[in-house]
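Researcher: Going back to the complex we discussed earlier. I've cleaned up the inputs and rechecked each line, so this should be the final set. Can you rerun the prediction on the complete assembly and write out the structure?
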Amino acid sequence: MLATYTIIISMSLIIIASFLSYWFQSYFFDQKKEQFLDKSYMIQGIAMKYMERDGDATSQQVNDIITIISKYIKSDIWLTDSMGYVYAVSNKDHKEFMGKQVFGEELDKLRQGHTFEITGPYAGAFDKTVRVYGTPIINESGSFKGSIILYNSIDEISSPLKRVYEIIWISAIFAIIFSCIVIYYFSQKIIIKPLAEINSVARKISNGDVNKRVYLKSNDEIGELAQTFNFMADSVEKNEKNRREFISNVSHEIRSPITSIKGFIGGILDGVIPEEKEKYYLSIAYEEIQRLTRLVNDLLDMSAIEAGEFSLKIIKVDINEIIRLTVIKNETKIKEKRACVDVCFEEDNLFVAGDQDRLVQVITNLLDNSIKYVNEGGKIKISSKTKGRKAFISVFNDGPQIAEEDLLHIWDRFYKADKARTVKDSTGLGLAIVRNIITQLQEDIWVENKDKGVYFTFTLMKVE
Ligand SMILES: Nc1ncnc2c1ncn2[C@@H]1O[C@H](COP(=O)(O)OP(=O)(O)OP(=O)(O)O)[C@@H](O)[C@H]1O
Ligand SMILES: [Mg+2]
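Model: Rerun complete. Updated structure for the full complex:
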């Protein structure tokens, strides 16, 4: 980026400097020309007099006068007659041109009363490049009488120009260096350092240092980027924490049944457990294995639901029928708790849009909780009703209410509110699965402490 900026600025300044140099050169030459032409009028008078043999000007005098003027205007002078033959020169070194024709097509221009200027070697006269200005001499009656030629070696004219060029180019170089320093400083401060910091933090996070953050306070896009980056880092950290917790929960949940199964079977094999008690301990081991199976199934369901692998088969299902069947399936457990189940429907059938198996799982998990947490001999109530296009299904049980601080967390995986009281057969996955399914159906579920118990209510879309 720095290189690009530097190149752009250098190119712009070089273009400006070249343009200025060119403009200044043409301005300078124009000025010079005007100055020369202006001076050439001084010579006209004397030249005219000599040409018209009017007065007593001799060739020598003419030569002397133009020599003086040439010194004054710092430029060599030739005078030619109307045919283009040189008859006076200001510089003694040019005597050889006396009496020679020095014009090409310029003579025609002069005859028509125009001036001319040439830059280059002139009339085969000089090795070096010269700048030549020619003006016609025209008498009062308007006839062409000859011409004045002024010339300078280009080096002489250019020497003041060189100074100006130097100033222009030195300024340009300084401007380039200065702007590069300024760009470097600001880009370091505004872009490069902050980006380098974000970069290094990103690298640390990717190496597992997920609690690293970028500390940048600026009100620009980089500041915004840093903020967004930190949000991303927060969520990475949260995910990482969840993942660790999840793994430790799962391992814990799996280890405890395995430990007890191992203990019982080991005891039987070693003969520590008396033969008449073997069956009893085997049945406990069998229960533990069932618990493990349930846990693994729940985990598999859970990860499939979270990964979105469950493409829900949304069809028209009768939720009342699902409730009836689920209650019947759980009869033994209900009886064990001597609970009384109250099922309350507006009509026999209530058709909703949903996935049959997943809705069975929802009702099963909710009813399972109710049975688990209902008071001995308490009441469980399941009801379904409709309001507009929605169906509301709620599962109530009287029993201990859920503490305020737990209300938000009971939906989390492995969360068990009352750890001491919670029954052994519990993993804390039930509600997480329920909520995942309901969310995938794009419906709502919520919990309320009411009527000395707990209500779980969820919505479904009614189908006619
Ligand atoms: N009907 C209820 N009454 C009181 N507390 C409840 C009720 N339902 C759930 N909870 C609380 O919410 C927690 C989470 O419930 P969830 O169903 O997810 O797990 P669990 O029942 O403990 O285990 P799992 O269902 O996986 O066997 C429970 O541990 C319990 O503390
Ligand atoms: Mg449960």
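Model: Worth noting: The pocket of magnesium ion (ligand 2) is lined by residues 365, 368-369, 430 (CB under 6 Å).
Researcher: Good, that matches what I expected from the previous run.
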